[in-house]
Amino acid sequence: MDKLELLGRNFLFRDLDRNALERLAALAVTRRLKKGEMLFNKGDEGDALYGVRSGNICISTTAPNGKEIILSVMERGDVFGEIALLDGLPRTADARALESSELIMMRRRDFTSLLEREPSLAVHLLELLCERLRNTNAMLEDVAFLGLPARLAKRLLSLATIYGQTCEDGEMIGLKLSQSDLGQMLGTSRESINKQLQEWVRQGFVKLGRSRVTICDRTALQQVVEKALTA
After folding, report:
1. Model confidence over 103-140: pLDDT tens digits?
2. Helices (H), the chain
3. What is residue 10's DSSP assignment?
4. What pLDDT digit, counting tens, does each position of 60-95 carry?
5. How far apart are CA 188 and CA 146, in angstroms?
6. How many Cβ atoms are within 10 Å of 64's Cβ, its own excluded?
7. What radius of gyration do the chain's Cα atoms show?
8. Among residues 102, 121, 95, 89, which one has the least CA distance to residue 19?
9. 181 contact partners, CB below 8 Å, separation of at least 6
10. Among 29, 90, 164, 166, which residue's Cβ finds the most Cβ atoms within 10 Å?
11. For residue 139, which of 155, 153, 159 has the smallest C-alpha distance?
12. CA neighbor of 164 nearest in space, from 99, 215, 111, 125
């Protein structure tokens, strides 16, 4: 997977023209990690964005009782650390290689230097961040007014609109999503997400794969949302 493809997957660089993406890719360098090697620790300076070309990177934190909590596993094609690219604040979790891995790395100092020379890129980022803020506001409204089934149905439908891929069973969301990821998106537990998804599996609304959700009955999920809004 080349640098252009990796960076183009990240929301920050979505819809950038190829010339701008090529200038960004030129900033990225290769970094290799051995199995078990730390990429960064919680509290380290947030000084770079990373993309996984091969291997797996575990993102984790430590609970007060000393137990490691795995937040996510970054696989080939995943890009992470984008917030640190913008604010440079300390890392909020640890990252280590689960196996020998090859990454691309874009340092914050190189990125901010490019921003100073490319005002159009800065405008692009402002627009995307405003979009994220609007989405956050909408999510807070959903938490206030909708129950979990409607919020989950609404989020799956939204993700399918952006990342949907037609398949034999319906519409697969072409984005790796663990149930923990969905829980974090909706401000609830993985267990609550699992319980609702399993109910929809029994009803034939969705099918579950490895970090994938396929919508089998879009109309049924839309009705879940509409019923909650009119209740």
Report:
1. 999 999 999 999 888 888 888 888 877 876 787 777 67
2. 3-8, 18-25, 82-87, 108-117, 119-145, 148-163, 179-186, 190-203, 218-230
3. S
4. 888 787 777 777 778 888 888 888 888 889 998 999
5. 13
6. 5
7. 19
8. 121
9. 72
10. 164
11. 155
12. 215
Rounded to whole angstroms, the Cα distance separating 172 from 213 reads 6
Residue 171, SS3?
A: strand
Q: What is the pLDDT of residue 125?
A: 82
Q: Could you count the other beta carbons within 10 Å of the beta carbon of residue 22? A: 13
Q: Which residue has the tokens 């914050």?
A: 108
Look-up of token digits 């980022």: 125
Whether residue 51 contacts residue 35, with contact meaning beta carbons closer than 8 Å, is answered with: no
How far is the C-alpha of 7 from the C-alpha of 12, rounded, in Å? Answer: 9
What distances in angstroms separate CA 50 from CA 32, 40, 96, 150, one per listed residue? 11, 11, 12, 34
Please state the φ and ψ torsions of residue 206, each to the nearest 5 degrees: -140, 165
Q: Residue 119 corresponds to which tokens in the numbers above?
A: 């005002």
The sheet with strand 164-167 has its strands ordered as: 164-167, 170-173, 212-215, 206-209
Answer yes or no: are the C-beta atoms of 3 and 25 closer than 8 Å: yes
